Amino acid sequence: MLDIYFKECLYFTANRLGRVITKMAEDAFAISGLSPTAAFLLMAAYEKDGISQKELGQILHLQPSTVTRLIEKLAAKNLLYNRVDGRLSLIYVTDKGRALEQTIQQCWDQLRERYATILGEEGDALSLHLYEVSNQLEKIE
């Protein structure tokens, strides 16, 4: 009976999936020397140099304190820096951070290839579906 409860519990199943995919992502991004989340933050900064810290939090769906910690870690590695402009904290990528862009892209590709090998086209469909479900559940809170 307990097995059925776990299989039908979105909380349990989502956390289980989170642990599995986190391990896969950590393995894929290990060669970059960054956590997957830190790498995704850098990817967002590549797209928009001078991005605000607030916008990073919105894009990554992270709390401001988590974004601050990630930025501090990346700044300590001299991969990015922030500049205060009035009330905004703007994030810029350093040359050293830019030098990691291709490696991070390769890590991203490796992760997607790994789960695509296992899930096939279902992987992208599942990802899109989970994104939409997350959006729906966030609106309730």
TrEMBL record:
SMART domains given in the database record: HTH_MARR
Keywords in alphabetical order: DNA-binding
InterPro entries tied to this protein: HTH_MarR-typ, MarR/SlyA-like, WH-like_DNA-bd_sf, WH_DNA-bd_sf
PROSITE patterns: HTH_MARR_2
SUPFAM superfamilies, A to Z: Winged helix' DNA-binding domain
Cleaved signal peptide residues: none
DNA-binding as UniProt keyword: yes
HTH marR-type domain ranges (all copies): 7-141
Domain of life: Bacteria
GO biological process, any: response to stress
GO molecular function (one): DNA-binding transcription factor activity
Pfam families: MarR (PF01047)
Entries under Gene3D superfamilies matching the protein: Winged helix-like DNA-binding domain superfamily/Winged helix DNA-binding domain
PANTHER family, A to Z: HTH-TYPE TRANSCRIPTIONAL REPRESSOR YETL, TRANSCRIPTIONAL REGULATOR, MARR FAMILY
Protein name: MarR family transcriptional regulator
Source organism of the structure: Cohnella nanjingensis
Organism taxonomic ancestry: Bacteria, Bacillati, Bacillota, Bacilli, Bacillales
